[in-house]
Amino acid sequence: MSYRIDETDRKILIELQKDADRSLDEIAKAAGSSKTPVWNRIRKMREAGIIGRQTVELDAEALGFEATFFVLIRTSEHEADWQRRFLEALRRRPEVQEAHRLAGDIDYILKVRVKNARAYDAFYQALISEVRVHNVTALLSMEELKSTGALPL
């Protein structure tokens, strides 16, 4: 389904990105509209796939996940079977918050959130036991300066 967003849709999306748990009345007021038209626009944007599933943002540190590692992976294997096994291994690992295939010297970068360095080592050992990689470099984030999933609408 094709859906072209307009300025009112943008305002709605900006408000939803700030806090999707707010009431429809609050979102409508902030977007300069009323409840029913905003509800209809949200429904249409969901149907079009512009708005995906809604989740809850958790405080990782409050839950004991104090370490974030950025894992740079180089591989000498680029066959479809290896890539399939690698992707399956990543999908089974809840520690992997993000995974990207890159252009350049590094083949993949992972964002891995764990409780501590020992937990990272367990993740690393499990990963390399499942798929062969040429080189792995783990970078520990000392401080998160900015993190957002919000798009710059």
TrEMBL record:
Pfam family, one: AsnC_trans_reg
InterPro entries to which the protein is assigned, alphabetical: ArsR-like_HTH (IPR011991), AsnC-type_HTH_dom (IPR000485), Dimeric_a/b-barrel (IPR011008), Tscrpt_reg_AsnC-like (IPR019888), Tscrpt_reg_AsnC/Lrp_C (IPR019887), WH-like_DNA-bd_sf (IPR036388), WH_DNA-bd_sf (IPR036390)
GO cellular component: cytosol
GO biological process per UniProt: regulation of DNA-templated transcription; response to amino acid
Keyword Transcription: yes
Keyword DNA-binding: yes
UniProt-recorded Gene Ontology molecular function terms: sequence-specific DNA binding
Domain spans labelled HTH asnC-type: 5-66
Domain of life: Bacteria
SMART domains reported in the protein's UniProt record: HTH_ASNC
Keywords tagged on the record: DNA-binding, Transcription, Transcription regulation
The protein, known as: Transcriptional regulator, AsnC family
Source organism: Wenxinia marina DSM 24838
